[in-house]
Automatic annotation (TrEMBL):
Xref: SUPFAM superfamilies: Heme-dependent catalase-like
Residue ranges of domain Catalase core in the record: 1-31
Protein's name according to its UniProt entry: Catalase core domain-containing protein
Signal peptide: none
Species of origin: Orchesella dallaii
UniProt KW keywords: Heme, Iron, Metal-binding, Oxidoreductase, Peroxidase
Classification via Gene3D superfamilies: Catalase core domain
Record keyword Iron present: yes
Family as reported in the entry's similarity comment: Belongs to the catalase family.
InterPro entries: Catalase, Catalase_core, Catalase_haem_BS, Catalase_sf
Length: 151
């Protein structure tokens, strides 16, 4: 029974928490000193010197009746935003779409200006220019209303 549990418990944690489950502070053990990125972002790419790309983990090229290699869809940016466009314009009413833009703009109002601008340019304007402009206008409106209320 013990041997079975030695396998199943870590396996369950791996399934529930992901492959890095052993790096979660509570799983490191008693008195573990883990800086956990020292408050920096946990995503890549980022603007504040968070984790970077690990090129040593690149996939290797090998032959299997031809060449198999990594395929990036960077050139087909439209495909990356197709589902968001379908969701906003096929599944949501104009009122719901307006609320989504208002919520996104309100959230971006609290972000650094350069990051908010990049989010609008690189995400919301690519969904549709109309939606990106609405998010930007809502963000600017929220910033202006906060500036007025702080005076």
């Amino acid at each position: 029974m013990l041997i079975g549990r030695m396998f199943s418990y870590p396996d369950a944690q791996r399934y529930r928490l992901g492959i890095n489950f052993a790096q979660i502070t509570v799983n490191l053990g008693f008195m573990a000193d883990n800086p956990n990125g020292e408050g920096g972002p946990k995503y890549f790419p980022n603007s504040v010197h968070g984790p970077g790309q690990n090129l040593s983990a690149a996939q290797s090229v090998f032959h299997v009746n031809g060449i198999v290699d990594r395929f990036d869809t960077v050139d087909d940016l439209d495909d990356n935003y197709r589902l968001a466009r379908l969701y906003l314009y096929k599944d949501l009413t104009s009122e719901h779409r307006r609320r989504v833009a208002r919520n996104l703009g309100g959230s971006l109002a609290g972000a650094r200006r350069d990051i908010a601008g990049r989010a609008i340019r690189n995400m919301f304007l690519r969904i549709t220019p109309e939606f990106g402009k609405q998010v930007r206008d809502d963000m600017l409106e929220d910033i202006a209303s906060n500036d007025i209320s702080n005076d």
